[in-house]
Design a protein that fits this description.
It catalyses: (sulfur carrier)-H + L-cysteine = (sulfur carrier)-SH + L-alanine. Pfam families: Aminotran_5 (PF00266). The protein is an alpha/beta fold. Helix content is about 35%, strand content about 15%. A seven-stranded mixed β-sheet has the order 2-10-9-8-7-5-6, with helices on both faces. A three-stranded antiparallel β-sheet has the order 4-3-11, with no helix packed on it. It has a three-stranded antiparallel β-sheet with strand order 12-13-15. It is globular and about 65 Å long. Bound molecules: pyridoxal-5'-phosphate (PLP). The site of pyridoxal-5'-phosphate has 15 residues, from α3.
């Protein structure tokens, strides 16, 4: 990143942590295949297992329950397997919340038509009564609910969700990709049976992630078949450098989490206090517990796509809704599920901070925001507010 840029899109991807870069550079010097039994192979295996222990420790899991994948999308797809179960009971239906990432909403490997959707409140929090209703009387389901939403930052009420799911003999998958390194949690505290993680949201490289399993789970069908890597749960020679970078990034993120996040939350709160001064601006999900680094702000009349370009020209990188859907002039499915109309949903801008965000980044961002908001004609603004 160049010095004159301000990066406020950390929920899309974070910069690589120096610890991750160093671990990856060292791993790339190794020649061995981690499955080979000679010294070179054992050295590569050592790095993979060291990283596995670091990832496992971060979420309170046993290292053997961590399966490395090519990222969060693969971890989510691997988790959503029909036929998962405990003992002889097998699960054939999937329930997902309406605000999940696209990689969960598509239903993994569940057949089309066997996926039910749980509603969320206006603040983007899963409706527990609706979940109870969906699970009542039906076959046991695999339920997939994220810990923190990537667009709003809203935290979901786990382990209350886990209690409901397990009372209905179901299994719970938690996409914790946005939460790892930002808020403390363990797999046990969540009450989850499967947890997805991704390296590039906390300072590791893109293209590496993990699915964390629990002992009692049976029936996980591999997505990739071939060699016996990852205890037969994911074939293919491991991405040694990427995995080493993931491990180093997780360790660094966990070590600095408490102080980094307290500082980041203060910055975010100052940012929001200033954004609120613009008449008509709305901070979405502001009244529920949220990630400390995320702000989703909307200003009816200011189109998000235009605003993102305006910010970019001012040297500030932000996102319109989720990065995966930016570029398309379509309201985010998250805001639609929360009941916002297209006018507000299409003006939502996500500002997400990270460990190197500074006071001057917030000042630059606010300067660009005031300019963009000031350019709105009074008429545009009033028309949009009436429609909203
Ligand atoms: C909540 C959530 N789940 C899943 C993913 C996908 O992860 P990856 O980019 O590693 O495939 C993302 C990334 O945008 C995310 O924010």
């Amino acid at each position: 990143m160049t010095a004159d840029r301000v990066y406020l899109d950390w929920n899309a991807t974070t910069p690589l942590r120096p610890q991750a870069r160093a671990a990856m550079a060292a791993a790339m010097e190794l020649a061995g295949n981690p499955s080979s039994i000679h010294a070179e192979g054992r050295a590569a295996r050592g790095l993979v297992e060291q990283a596995r222990a670091m990832v496992a420790a971060a979420v309170g899991a046993a290292p053997r329950n961590v399966v490395f994948t090519s990222g969060g999308t693969e971890a989510n797809t691997l988790a959503l397997t029909p036929g998962l179960g405990i003992g002889s009971q097998r699960i054939e239906q999937l329930v997902v919340s309406a605000i999940e990432h696209a990689s969960v909403l598509t239903g993994g490997r569940f057949p089309h038509g066997s996926v039910a959707t749980v509603q969320v409140s206006r603040e983007g929090v899963v409706d527990l009564d609706h979940l109870r209703g969906l699970l009542a009387g039906g076959h046991p389901a695999l339920v997939s609910v994220m810990l923190a939403n990537n667009e709003t930052g809203a935290l979901q009420p786990l382990p209350a969700i886990a209690e409901i799911v397990h009372a209905a003999d179901g299994l719970l998958h938690v996409d914790a990709i946005q939460a790892l390194g930002k808020i403390p949690f363990t797999v046990n505290e969540l009450g989850a049976d499967l947890v997805s993680l991704s390296a590039h949201k906390l300072g590791g490289p893109t293209g590496v992630g993990a699915l964390v399993l629990t002992e009692r789970l049976a029936g996980l069908e591999p997505l990739l078949r071939g060699g016996g890597q990852e205890l037969g749960r994911r074939a293919g020679t491991e991405n040694v450098a990427g995995i080493a970078g993931f491990g180093a990034a997780v360790a660094a993120a966990m070590a600095g989490m408490e102080s980094d996040m307290a500082r980041i939350e203060n910055l975010r709160n100052r940012l929001e206090a200033n954004l609120r001064q613009t008449e008509g601006s709305v901070i979405i999900a502001e009244s529920v517990p949220r990630l400390p680094n995320t702000t989703l702000v909307a200003l009816p009349g200011l189109r998000a796509e235009t605003a993102v370009i305006g910010f970019d020209l001012a040297g500030v990188a932000v996102s319109s809704g989720s990065a995966c859907s930016s570029g398309k002039v379509r309201a985010s499915h998250v805001l639609e599920a929360m009941g916002f109309g297209p006018e507000l949903a299409q003006s939502a801008i996500r500002l997400s901070l990270g460990w190197s965000s500074s006071e001057s980044d917030i000042d630059r961002c606010l300067k660009a925001w005031r300019k963009l908001a000031g350019n709105l004609t009074k008429r545009d603004h009033e028309t949009e507010l009436e429609r909203f």
